[in-house]
Amino acid sequence: MNRDCYLVDSSIYVFRAWFSLPDTMAGADGEPVNAVYGFLRFMTELVEQARPTRIVFAFDESLSSSFRNELYPAYKANREQAPPELKRQFELCKDLVRALGMSCLADDRYEADDLIASAASRMRARGYRNVVVSGDKDLVQVLEGSDLWWDFSRDRRLDVNGAHDHFGVWPHQLRDYLALVGDSVDNIPGVPGVGPKSAVRLLRLYESLEELFSNLEQVPQLALRGAGRIAENLRAHREQAFLARELATVVTQVPLGEGDEAYDVTASDQAELRRLLDRLDRGEGYVQRLRSALTA
Predict the structure, then answer these.
(1) Which of 128, 173, 196, 292 lies 20 to 30 Å from 268 when distance is taken between CA atoms?
(2) What's the CA gap between 224 and 201, in Å, rounded?
(3) Do 244 and 255 sit in the same domain of this protein?
(4) Which residue in 111, 129, 109 sits closest to 120, CA to CA?
(5) Which domain holds residue 159?
(6) Alpha helices, DSSP H, located in the chain
(7) Same domain for 72 and 154
(8) 195 in the Ramachandran plot: left (φ > 0), alpha (ψ -120 to 50) or beta?
(9) φ, ψ at 58 (rounded to 5°)
């Protein structure tokens, strides 16, 4: 029996399609469908390669309604909100996922990363191996046991040990790493003067932020370039570091609500699929390939 559960960080692939395909690709109503079409192509390639029996697609609802914005109003403030024509396509992508008999998760308070982490925790407890499909390094922190992180676009698969080799820290330490170096993509502040190499070195010596700050007096004596300055910056920005870690930590206990079999691939809704394809005015070939792969 296949014991893999695929957890897809969907929004990144919708955005990539939006930026890579021309917005002159229009549906029956004349509205752009480039992001939907590109996402459908991604779904087809993923399903043909993975042949999943259980899979869930998680979407971000908003850049400004996450609980993290309450903790830090500037969180993701450097990103532009999706324009109305892209928001419309996000909804179509969700409709396609559901019509094809696959599960879809979205929440206006929790991000896709949190939904994936919570689904992973649930499925791991039921004896499944999680395969997280994403190019986002933040989701590496989800990995435990035999789980995999799969950067589909680069065809890079990392297990716990591979993640350590690639990023220099263990998956459970990634949040501490991001607390030190910050994350410009999400507008998360780090500790000034602490770069990636210094952060990795510190976390190899000290398991976590708590251990690092408990031994701060040792840092100036480390064989580390600028060790004295780093210690001063850590001391001055302690509160900021712990806030950054809270922002970077994925939530594993989001109340998802579905039953045990929620992520099993089920029969597609033929009538809804036809309605969506007519609206898109394209994608028939990809849908046929998807359905063949899902029933193989």
Answers:
(1) 128
(2) 8
(3) no
(4) 129
(5) 4-167+250-295
(6) 10-20, 34-50, 67-71, 84-99, 112-125, 160-167, 174-181, 196-205, 209-214, 227-236, 238-248, 270-280, 284-295
(7) yes
(8) beta
(9) -105, 135
What number of CA atoms fall less than 13 Å from residue 265's CA on the CB side?
Answer: 22
**36 and 16 both lie in a single domain:** yes
Q: Tell if the pTM clears 0.90, that is, is over it.
A: yes
Amino acid at site 91: E
Q: Are residues 233 and 138 in the same domain?
A: no
pLDDT (tens digit per residue) in 160-202: 999 999 999 999 999 999 999 999 999 999 999 999 999 999 9
Let me know: does 86 contact 35? Beta carbons within 8 Å. Answer: yes
Number of domains the chain contains: 2
Q: Residue 258: CB partners within 8 Å, gap ≥ 6? A: 103
Alpha helices in 126-172 (DSSP H): 160-167
- CB 21: neighbour CB atoms within 10 A? 18
Closest CA to 174 of 245, 98, 237: 245
Better-scored residue on pLDDT, 149 or 291:
149
pLDDT at 284: 77
Question: What band does 258 get if pLDDT is binned at 50, 70 and 90?
Answer: low
Do 265 and 189 fall into the same domain?
no
Q: Which tokens in the block code for residue 81?
A: 């909100």
Angle at CA 235, nearest 5°, toward 229 and 238?
130
Residues 272 and 142 in one domain: yes
